[in-house]
Amino acid sequence: MADPTLFDISQRGKRCTRMPAPEKGAEELIPAQHLRAQAPGLPEVSEPEIARHYATLAAQNFNVDGHFYPLGSCTMKYNPKVNEALAADPGWARLHPATPEEHVQGALRLMHQLEAWLCAILGMDAVSLQPPAGAAGEFTSLRVFRAWHDSQGNTQRTRVIVPDTAHGTNPASVARCGWTVTVLESGDDGRVSPEALADALDDDVAALMLTNPNTLGLFEAQVLQIAEMVHDAGALMYCDGANMNALLGHGRPGEMGFDAVQVNLHKTFSTPHGGGGPGSGPIGVTAELEPFLPVPRLVEQDGRLAWDWDRPESIGKVQSWFGNFLVAVRAWAYIRACGADGLAQVARDAVLAANYIRASLEDVYDLPYPGACMHECVLSARTIAEETGVRAADIAKRLLDHGIHPPTMYFPLIVDEALMIEPAETETKAALDRFIEVMREIAREAAADPEILHDAPHSTPVRRVDEVKAARNPILRWQGR
């Protein structure tokens, strides 16, 4: 039986709070067309009832504080609560972006220092904190590329090469810049083949967008040769740095030949990710591309920081004000706490955890691209599906019964029945061992009684839904019973 709604427990006369009566004549302050003819039909409940109602709903949600959340490619990791407390401090949280520069030197100093730290981490010459998300960082990087090409008279360059192991937003960013996409098929090892790249390069290519490590969790080992080929063709190199948690302290995109890179502060540097935000996708660029970064730029003058709006070659703004500042506060605190050695350990732990899961499950699930991975491993349920009819989606639903959020399913698209698993660096060996045992148990269930999986989940508040119908006919408001 479904839990009662607020309407079910509503009783006339109950109140959470009582508002003072409006002053005489207050109705005249509201335009007549905005006045209701009758009161809205809201539930009438007491304060304890409404508090318990929402606490119950919250407890039914899967969340990274309460559950293992191995969502591949999105780094759903536990984040230190101290960084949340710092971001919530009124000194940061209540700053208005229009506050005069002389009154917010501390905030400007934090952003200026974060930019410098990100330059060191990424191996780039300049960083802009303005893009509000990873996809926005992609788009901003390509806008910078286009501005640079236009300044060089390269208006014929309208094509961008995107490998089939890229993040799914890459082609959309290309299209938003008015360019066309050429999809590059990966080699048998799941990486970009220099031979295939050579066939795709021409004088109309503006850039190559390379996710490294790619969405198969594999490092593009020939990246130096690839960068040389792209530059020799007159194009630019963009690194999708959403997977930087695998490289921290061990590899820098700038030293791999990239001209621009985006990094997700909300994934790699400690902001809770998911549910639509908050996010931040700063970009780092080479000195040659720095004049084209979004305005305004932070500059230091006589020991004080100021915003520089006089940037004639800039692409303009891509986000209101100066980006998502409180995400920058969290990232600053995380980097400051970890230090260089700590960030390098983050990468080692993330890679070790992913390889531990890979090595522990590759005898039960298919491993489309054998060998060591980086921060995530991509398994496949293809053989299980062929032999038992149990698909990746069934496995994902069954994981919910064990209190584990499913990994990413059916992505990358080049892997049949894909399960993209990213344990992140924050999980203990005990948590990984439990996940491994649950995955092995599910494989045994698929062979012995596949209907258990076809009917999963069994223990969640909402059972399996018709996802196609839900997408085509969404019900977005309460309609009663």
Outline the low-pLDDT stretches. none
Helix fraction bin: 25-40%
Relevant CATH superfamily of the largest domain? Type I PLP-dependent aspartate aminotransferase-like (Major domain)
How far the N terminus sits from the C terminus, by CA atoms, comes to 13 Å
CATH architecture of the largest domain: 3-Layer(aba) Sandwich
The total strand number stands at 12
User: What class do helices, strands and sheet pairing give?
Assistant: alpha/beta
The run of helices and strands is HHHHHEHEHEHEHEEHEEEHEHHEEHHH
Strand content: 5-15%
Report the major sheet.
7 strands, mixed
Q: Which fold does the CATH topology of the largest domain refer to?
A: Aspartate Aminotransferase, domain 2
Task: Tell me, briefly, the overall form.
Answer: globular
Report Rg.
26 Å
Strand order of the largest sheet: 1-7-6-5-4-2-3
What average pLDDT do the residues reach?
A: 93
